[in-house]
Write a structure and sequence with these properties.
twelve-stranded mixed sheet, five-stranded mixed sheet, Fumarylacetoacetate hydrolase, domain 2
């Protein structure tokens, strides 16, 4: 199922999608992701009992991020070999983990703010995994049992802050630095998330062109590693790393500037688009 979260008359709504149109199922599903996850079987039973009317054109509504308040946004660094190579760094022996603050989350077509503190604003298109069941010490063999679905995240990064500080969190967690969306696709719709095309374009120019089958650490390995000592709960996001082609390592570098349009497209999910604007303070 493809779930879209959108605003209608100032209220948050949930819709299921077919051929570019939405059916508002808020009355059936509730208006937030955690409720949907918790009562998903009942939700699906009710959906299957009624005839859905797809009358809302996606282009006519304001899309929201699938979830604005996850308990954790866990990000994976250096998870594609070609990205390690372009950064002139060795491939990691185990997953590199950092986090983003939830205040960084924005939705499709929301503005990325270009703060005055950076002159090296960069992009990283990534597959996002949304956890659907609480678990700790999850084996990689059972990892998919704990996944609810998938979406797209753009790991916006202030490179000058990132490389001048001892850790990455501030450089990757400033407000608006986590575009997330445009929808959530439940795992049954994507039986093989390790074979998805992932592309990023900047102002229409192709920057990143990879595939999730190039991850160094596959999704089950990431879930196993993270959950060894960290309890995963419904709604948690694991952003699985980015392919090569980020702006910082282009020659010359290609950074995000006010007016830039950045789009991340992942096969079977869609396109996450955002515009960069100047910080009005």
């Amino acid at each position: 199922m493809r779930l879209y979260f959108f605003a209608k008359e100032g209220e948050a709504c949930v819709g299921v999608e077919k051929d570019g149109y939405l059916c508002d199922v808020t009355d059936i599903a509730g208006d937030d992701l955690i409720t949907i996850i918790e009562f998903y079987e009942e939700f699906m039973e009710r959906v299957n009992e009624v005839e859905l009317e797809y009358t809302i054109k996606i282009e006519d509504v304001k899309l929201l991020a699938p979830f604005y308040d996850p308990q954790k946004v866990i990000c994976i660094g250096k998870n594609y070999l070609a990205h390690c190579q372009e950064a002139n760094t060795d491939a990691p022996k185990k997953p590199v983990i950092f986090s983003k603050y939830t205040t960084a989350i924005i939705g499709h077509d929301d503005y990325i703010i270009h703060p005055e503190e950076t002159s090296q604003l960069d992009f990283e298109g990534e597959l996002a995994v949304i956890i659907g069941k609480e678990g700790k010490r999850i084996s990689k063999e059972n990892a998919f049992d704990y996944i609810f679905g998938y979406s797209i995240m753009n790991d916006i990064s202030a490179r000058d802050l990132q490389f001048s500080e001892g850790q990455w969190v501030r450089a990757k967690s400033l407000d608006t630095f986590a575009p997330f969306g445009p929808c959530l696709v439940t795992k049954d719709e994507i039986p093989d998330p390790q074979n998805l095309s992932i592309k990023t374009t900047l102002n229409g120019e192709l920057m990143q062109d990879g595939n999730t089958n190039l991850m160094i650490f596959k999704i089950p390995e990431l879930i196993e590693f993270v959950s060894r000592n960290i309890t995963l709960v419904p709604g948690d996001i694991i952003s699985t790393g980015t392919p090569s082609g980020v702006g910082h390592f282009k020659n010359p570098p290609k950074y995000l500037l006010p007016g830039s349009i950045i789009e991340v497209e992942i096969e079977k999910i869609g396109i996450l688009r955002n515009k960069v604007v100047e910080d009005k303070k």
